[in-house]
Structure formats: structure tokens, C-alpha cells
Amino acid sequence: MKSILNLLTKVFVIQFYQSHVSLFLFVLGMSAGFMRAQDHLALGALMVSSPLLATMPIMLWIVYTILFIKFNSDLLSLPENRFAYALSFVEKKRQLTSITSIIAVQLAPAILYGAFLASLAWMNQQYIELFQIISALLILTAIGSLQFFSRIANFQDQNKQWKLTIVLNRSIVKPFPLFFPEWIARKELFVLLGTKTCGLILLYAITQLYKFDTYDVRLIALGTILCFAAQSPLIWNLHYFENQVMMMTRSMPLSFLKRLINLLITLCLLLLPESAFLVGRFPEQLSFYDLISSLTLGWSICILFYGFLYWKSFLLDELTTRIFFFVMALLVITLFKMPLLLISSVLFVTGFSLWIANYYRYEAGATYNTRDLGS
Questions:
Q1: Measured over all CA atoms, what is the biggest interatomic distance in the chain, rounded to whole angstroms?
Q2: Within 10 Å of residue 242's Cβ, how many Cβ atoms?
């Protein structure tokens, strides 16, 4: 039992925290650098003040759960980790105990903050919210454990396709800009749902702040930067799709204008939820110019990431580390009241210039060799 637990911890827990160290440093820096102890207590008390508000941290925990479930699934698909499937021959009770233990450690940040919120709910006699928090953490732990358990128990059926999927693939002809949205929904559904949920929750929280105090456009700009920068995994997968899965399109006789149109249509589909939310819930006290500036800022960030990957390729974890420092610099520039349209123009020009200059010279080398998406 102890040997199994130690092995799973080294492979899944330690690697998970090492791979996402930039995310935890970012959260720690935002919470410890901008909030005092009194602010944390006030925010926690607000979250447990009603059942509706208590769902906000639960939604973030769901996104976090999707993140480590996706990470575990990717690790299990690697050839060097196929030994984990041998767990299916171990006694079921020992399997569940070991798996639940490592899932609880992966979920530890949510569990620790949940314990903080639960203590506040207990002190304030908010028993419904207390039940919400405890039950949510237990359910998420159970979901993560059962998904891991199911994966190792049914590893031979992972490539099985539903008959409806086969019929749809044969009967519906899709235009090229729809290829990537369908592919990402099939292969990286957790990434797609996680980035969209996280971004929309962030935008919702920031737009709600405008109802209680007076802020200028910089606040919504900060939220836009964080929201659209969080789409970097989708941009990375788009680059991977175009240069590995659909490599033949690079040799097709298409003009840059046609390629640009396809790219913009694909990005429209990917960024539609965030863009529509900004348009529909944009603060009334801000002008139409501020809305256009915020939208172009978000889109320019994605264009910059896309062009940058043609100039210099990185693994997704490496890209995330560099994006962290880029976002920090962009937040500081925005706080100094730099015009948003000026920032957007610089990012747009830089991104498109990198893409055009390096498109035909780009070669997908060893960057993707460690990745197995089953494409």
C-alpha cells in the first residue's frame, strides 16, 4: 500500500505541482500581494453570506478539478506511465484508497481554502453554506478518484467511438474554420471548458464591481487581459493542430489573405463566449470607445501569442511561464494609463508580423515530440 502510494505521488502529484508552479505563484502573488488579512476575511465572509455567493468558489474548484483530471489523463496516455494500468490487478479497496489519497493531495489548495470558508461559515452560523462547501469538496474528490479509477480499469476501451459520432462524421461536411473547434472539443474538452469557465467567471466578477463603486476603464482592461491571456492553451493547441494534425494545409496554394480569413473565423468561434459577454455585460458608465478598446486588447493578446509561436515554439508548460511575465508587464503598463488602442495596435502588428515573417520558414521539430493527443 505504502509503495503504491509513494509511486503514484511521485508520478502524478509532484509532476502536477511542478508543471503548474507558475499558476500557483500567480495566484499566490495576486492574493498575497494585493490583499491584506482583513481583505481575505471580508471576502471569505462575503462568499459564505448566501448560497448563491458560495457557488463562486465552488465554480473555481470545478475548473481546478478539470485541470488536474486532464493532467492525470495526459500522463496516463504516455508510454512511460502505462505501468499505472497494472493497478487494475490490485484489490479494489487498495486501489480506491491509493487513488483517493493522491486526488486529495492534488485538490489540497481547494481543500485548504474550503476549510477556511467552512470555519467562517461555522462562526457565522451559515449552516447551508457550510454544507455546500463540504459537500462540494467531497463530490469533487469523488469525481476525480472515480475518473482515475475508471481510466485504469477500462484502458482498452479508450479509443471506442459512439455510432452516432461515426454517422455524423460521414454525413456532415464542415468548412475548414470549423475543423479546429471540433477537434479541440473532442481531444481537449477539459482544456476548452476550463479556460472558458475561468474566463467568464473572472469577467462576471469584475463587471459586478462596477455596480458598487466608480472605476475607470482600467479595471475592465485588467480583467480582459487576464481572461484572454487564459486562452493561451487554446492558441497553443490551434498552432499544434495547424502544424501537426493538419500539416498538409501549409502546402496548399492559399494566399495569406485566405489564411488570415480562416484564422479570424476560427478565433471568432473560439473567443465568442468572452467577446459576447463583454458586449452584453459591459458597465453602463463606460463608453462605447472603452468597449471597442477592451475587445481589441483581448483579441490582440491572442494574435500575439499565435504569431509568437511561429517565431519560437515552446511546450505548453514553457509557454505558460513566459505568459505569466508578459501578463504582469501588461498589467503594469495598463495601470499607468497607457491608451488601450495603442497597446492593442502594437500587439496586433507584432503578432501578424511574426506570423507572416515566419510562416513558411517554420518547421515543427522536437517541440511536439513528447505530446500524445491521439490525433
A1: 68
A2: 24
